[in-house]
Amino acid sequence: MALKWLKKIIGRENRQETTEIAFHKLEDWVADKLKADLDDFSRSAALIFAEIEDTAEQLVRDIGTLETAEPPEMPPRALKVGLAARDNIIKQINMLIEKINTPEMDYSAIREFYATADTNLETTLEKSVKSHHSARYLFPKEVGEVVSDVRDVRKLLNKLKLLIDEKEDQIGNLDEISGTIQSIIDIQDDITERNSRIRNAGSELNDFRHESDEHAARLEKLSESAEWSSFVKLETELKQACEERDDIETSVMELFMPLNKAFKRMKKQDASERRTLSAKQKKLLDMCLENPIEMDAADVTDFMTDVYKLLENDVLGLKDRKREKAIGQTKQIMDSFASKKDAHRVISSQIRKIEDQISGLTISETKTTLERELAAKNERIARIEQEIENLRGNLKIRGKELEDQKNNLSSAVNSIKTVHIIFD
Fold it and tell me: For residues 397 and 191, what is the distance between their CA atoms, to the nearest angstrom?
């Protein structure tokens, strides 16, 4: 019993430790947290820079001492090398000191300062390392002091680097949280905008469906009128007549097709000027290949007579078997084209007559208008339905993205402090 009681107390305490933050207030919380961390960073960095400044001042003094130091008695050559080495050390150290300027107490500025100062220090050491050995022969104590100061600068830069690294992950995490917050806001705005489009499209869809139903009802009512049966009968007759005309046109085209090779040979010979066709023959030749039913029966007879002679005299260069078939086909065209042309003329006349009768009916124009408008509205309905389906599909994807970003945000925030984010 005592153990259960203790667990309840601990559990209650743990629950009380979890802070709740509304999502819309989280950005301010992050900003405050970042400011507090940066303020703490700046205070710690300021202490290190105070030490760097003190060390730099000491380095200035020790360089001055080295510069004014009197060399001991040495052979002229050793003396010359040692003094040149001292001058190089003084030059390199002075250049380094000039570049050690305390930056603004800003994280980015301090990080940039470290990178620059570290590079400058390495450059100084590379350019003066040989000079240290040579100068030590003349000025062991003074060079030793300068080297010690440079080592102190290195230690302080390393200390600053540790401070930068310590805060980098945390500051980067806070920046990432700010980016995730903005991403969530953008997704939420996008979802709101898409939902609005769905509502508008739904309203528009209802309007078009209502209008479509009205048109369908009017067409149904139209079919109950006295004029409707006459209209339907004429439409049926028109359809049958058109099919009959199409059959005749197909039959005529099939009649001329076996002569296509001969026709193309004639065009080729005309193009190469081996045998020139008259303007009328060229026109009739094109019509034979493209739309022979439009030709006049007398013209077909005359033209087929010319083709027959060309084939009989073997002018077109066809093989014997094909030439014989082509000759037979010209005879068949001359025998049957006139009757097919007459039948086509009669059926075309009937079609025009039926079309005139249909156009004379008031119901025809009304029906055509209603059907055209109904088709347009149904097409619009289909487009809107597809648009809504696409929007809903996009919403599903965006909703999944939103949940992923919320989980990422919660994980990132809780890595800093245990917080329950209220998104609604």
Answer: 10
